[in-house]
Design a protein that fits this description.
The complex is a heterodimer of chains A (474) and B (275). Chain A is built from 15 helices and twelve strands. By secondary structure, chain A is α/β, with parallel strands linked by helices. Chain A has a single domain (1-474), classed as Spore Coat Polysaccharide Biosynthesis Protein SpsA, Chain A, CATH 3.90.550.10. In chain A, the strands form two sheets. Chain A has a ten-stranded mixed β-sheet with strand order 3-4-5-2-1-6-11-8-12-7, with helices on both faces. In chain A, strands 9-10 form a two-stranded antiparallel ribbon. In chain A, helix 7 crosses helix 14, helix 9 (275-289) packs parallel to helix 10 and helix 12 packs across helix 14 (418-452). Chain B is built from ten helices and ten strands. In chain B, helix 8 links the parallel strand 8 (195-198) and strand 9 (226-231). Chain B has helices spanning 2-6, 9-24, 39-52, 78-94, 114-127, 158-170, 181-191, 207-221, 236-244, 257-268; strands at 28-35, 58-63, 68-74, 98-107, 135-137, 150-154, 174-178, 195-198, 226-231, 249-252. In chain B, helix 2 (9-24) packs antiparallel against helix 5 (114-127) and helix 7 (181-191) packs parallel to helix 8. Chain B is an alpha/beta fold. Chain B has a five-stranded mixed β-sheet with strand order 2-3-1-4-5, with helices on both faces. In chain B, strands 7-6-8-9-10 form a five-stranded parallel β-sheet, with helices on both faces. The longest helix of chain B is centred in the first third of the chain and has 17 residues, at 78-94. Chain B is elongated and about 65 Å long. The chains are: A alpha/beta (474), B alpha/beta (275). Chain A binds chain B through residues 47-48, 50-53, 76, 79-80, 82, 84-85, 136, 175, 208-211, and chain B through 157, 180-182, 201-207, 209, 231-235, 237-238, 241, 252-253.
């Protein structure tokens, strides 16, 4: 019995080490790519590009549900982006508040019957489209409530341009974010099907006139953990994954997609959180099934600022939602690509990594820990092995965290002060004493939600999106 | 008479502030009231207005010799100053110390020079001590514009700002610069230049809405300010749209300084309309 426990415990330790080793590999790819990215953005003239005729037009889709307080400023800010040709499509998802009226009043929009909307993707009933020739690149779609994915689909149906960009109504785009992604896209317009932007945390920053005026680190603990976590995920993780074309997610807060292919894979999937990962999985699968050359990339210098949950309650519900969405995506899409040679990097690396080391990690980690504790209770002599493994784990993890901070400091330097740097390092280490463990727990609780509410998919999105709104209101 | 009012205690206590408003071109409001008060009542007034209008910074000064009360309000337009004066009037009436009229004025709405406005207001109050109760608005001297050949440049690119400022300064123009639409609008209201050169890609207030607001201010005040667009945007839709907004010129970057100056000259040196 003791030996079995020990063996399993050691297996779990190796499991954690393997995660870290894979992550190290990914971070090395990020390091390799970051030099290219730095040179690219250094030698690009975004000012000139932002007025060029050769930049492809983009339709920006803004799903809005109960956003009456912020929608006006956000749309104004979007209308002043530095980009040659684009349209802003706000989709009012049957809001219960005055979102629709606020928009109509502010921009003096007039009602048009929804005849101009093509029914490319089926959505909830569209009540009408609002427009004002004074603002030629602004549309407001009013539809019955159907969730975020459904709103995006309705936006796609109206959109006039070949590229679409999904943006959360509560996120702030930097003025040149779109043109930076477009420049990337123009490198290879035939092959790019999706490009994600970098999401940064706006808590603690000074925001004025719909812009982040002064960047600063959050003052509260939860947003601060998330800042470090996002840096690690986006810079350490996504740059590396994109280098080997194995990116599994483009953040829902800000990404650009080729519309044709989004339509071909059936648009966004509703009824469940995680529609942003879902669309990327479907795109990978579609392109590989049809043997089309393609790339899905990440553009770390295109920045979108978002408000992170700043209380335990909201954060845990967000993470549970992510856990639920992740599990759903793996069951729905991931397992068809798991270890299939046809799906190349996705089949051999991304999906197995995600299923074994992300989706299933709570089970391995929790049981492994229990096994080790059980073993220690049976025989106190084993504690040294545990201690050594744990120390290696923390040191390895810290090293990876520092690697991501290094990437940030090399390429972007958004937090230039020494004090900020030490604060970030401090939190990178602190993450291993509580926050990471909570993350695992939240994911596990998300899975429980998934199995409990398996039959009531439809009703869940609404509440989950509500929670999002509460995040922002808080 | 003039001497008396120059040495007035009100002038002494407001002098530095007004100088600051003049230099920074920020708004301020002034209220002058004829009243007989003692120290205690002045203090009482202060706490009264602070309670009623806690968000407005105010300075109170009382000149015993002339029996005049002066109030200086930070960042107040004429409309707001007038509103504020109603509170003051209520208080003075309640205390039964008001024995004449009240005069209100706001810089730069009623005068181009902040200090001269205060002098003018005091002079009028002293010259007409018998005036009946009620709030009057000071009508000061207001030249349409400080300088005939003034240009406002709005561009987020510091290099463009600097280049144009140096270049046009040397050619004898008075140049003001701003980095975004909001700052641009503030500068515009302060300087009222004869020409605005602006980028369309602006932050805080976007280029189109900046042009729109400049145009509506111009129409409202009957100015002959022209707007010229100097932008990275090369799309025909943008050109079409800006001309619909009543813009006089559209130049795309990269640009030639010689050509730009020629076009500026044509716009600035036109026969001024009868205003």
């Amino acid at each position: 019995m003791r030996d079995v426990l020990l063996a399993y415990g050691i297996f779990a330790m190796y499991y954690v080490l393997t995660i870290n080793t894979i992550y190290l590999g990914i971070i090395l790819f990020s390091m390799k790519k970051i030099f290219k990215i730095m040179k690219e953005s250094f030698y690009s003239k975004y000012d000139t590009l932002s007025g060029s005729k050769h930049v492809p037009p983009i339709s920006i889709l803004v799903p809005a549900y109960n956003e009456e307080l912020t929608i006006k400023e956000n749309v104004r800010s979007l209308l002043a982006l530095h980009y040659p040709k684009y349209e802003v499509i706000v989709v009012n998802d049957g809001s219960g508040d005055k979102t629709l009226d606020v928009m109509i009043d502010e921009f003096e929009l007039t009602y048009h019957p929804p005849t101009m909307i093509q029914n490319t993707i089926a959505t909830e009933k569209v009540r009408g489209v609002y427009y004002n020739p004074e603002f030629p690149n602004l549309y407001l779609v009013d539809k019955e409530n159907g969730g975020k994915a459904d709103s995006l689909n309705a936006g796609i149906n109206l959109s006039h341009y070949p590229l679409i960009s999904s943006i959360d109504a509560d996120s702030l785009l930097e003025k040149d974010a779109l043109i930076r992604i477009a420049r990337k896209y123009m490198e290879n317009p035939d092959e790019y099907v999706a490009i994600g932007g970098n999401v940064r945390i706006a808590n603690g920053c000074r925001i004025k006139n719909g812009m982040v005026e002064k960047v600063n680190l959050p003052k509260k603990m939860w947003p601060m953990f998330q800042t470090v976590e996002y840096l690690k995920a986006f810079l350490g993780g996504r740059i590396g994954w994109s280098e080997i074309n194995g990116l599994i997610i483009v953040s829902g807060a800000f990404g650009v997609f080729k519309k044709d292919y989004v339509v071909k894979v059936g648009g966004y999937r509703g009824g469940y959180p995680g529609e942003d990962m879902n669309i990327i999985l479907k795109l990978h699968r579609y392109m590989l099934d049809n043997k089309l050359p393609y790339k899905i990339d990440f553009c770390p210098d295109a920045v979108c600022w978002t408000q992170a949950p700043d209380s335990y309650k909201i954060l845990s519900s967000q993470r549970k939602r992510w856990g639920r969405g992740n599990l759903k995506n793996m069951i729905e899409e991931g397992r068809f690509m798991f270890m299939r040679p046809k799906y190349k990097v996705m089949g051999w690396l991304t999906i197995p990594y995600n299923i074994i080391f992300e989706t299933l990690s709570p089970y391995f980690r929790i049981t492994g820990l229990l096994a080790l504790i059980g073993y220690s209770l049976l025989d106190m002599s084993g504690w040294t092995i545990m201690a050594v493994f744990m120390t290696i784990n923390v040191l390895f993890g810290t090293l990876l965290g520092l690697g991501s901070l290094l990437l940030e400091e090399m390429a972007f330097q958004r937090y230039p002060k020494f004090r900020q740097y030490f604060k970030m390092i401090g939190y990178t280490v602190l993450m291993f004493f509580g926050y990471r463990q909570l993350g695992i727990l939240w994911r596990f609780l998300g899975h429980i939600d998934f199995f409990k509410k398996n039959n009531s998919w439809g009703t869940m999105t609404r509440t989950s999106w509500n929670e999002d709104e509460e995040d922002q209101a808080a | 008479m003039a001497q008396a009012q120059m040495g007035s205690r009100i002038v002494q206590s407001f002098h530095h502030f007004l100088h600051y408003y003049q230099v920074s071109q920020l708004k301020c409001g002034i209220i002058i009231a004829r009243a007989d008060m003692n120290e205690k009542q002045v203090d009482k007034l202060k706490s009264y207005v602070e309670k009623n209008e806690p968000n407005t910074g105010c300075q109170i000064s009382y000149d015993k010799e002339e029996g005049l009360l002066g109030i200086l309000l930070d960042d107040c337009s004429l409309g707001y100053t007038h509103f504020y004066a109603l509170h003051v009037q209520d208080f003075l009436r309640e205390q039964r110390v008001l024995n004449g009229g009240i005069m209100v004025g706001s810089f730069p709405e009623n005068s181009d020079k902040a200090e001269e406005m205060l002098f003018g207001m005091l002079r009028q109050m002293i010259d007409r001590p018998d005036s009946q109760e009620g709030i009057r608005i000071y009508q000061g001297k207001k030249e349409q514009r400080n300088h005939e050949k003034s240009i406002l440049i709005v561009d987020s690119d510091r290099d463009v700002q600097k280049l144009l400022k140096t270049y046009f300064n040397r050619k004898g123009y008075q140049v003001t610069t701003a980095g975004d639409g909001k700052e641009g609008l503030e500068r515009f209201e302060g300087v009222l230049p004869s020409l605005v050169i602006t980028e369309i890609n602006l932050s805080a207030i976007g280029g189109y809405s900046f042009i729109n607001q400049v145009k509506s201010i111009t129409n409202e005040k009957g100015l002959d300010t022209e707007v010229m667009v100097l932008t990275n945007k090369q799309l025909e839709e943008d050109i079409k749209r800006t001309f619909e907004y009543g813009v006089a010129e559209y130049i795309t970057k990269p640009f030639s300084l010689v050509e730009l100056e020629a076009r500026v000259k044509r716009l600035v040196n036109r026969q001024p309309k009868n205003v």
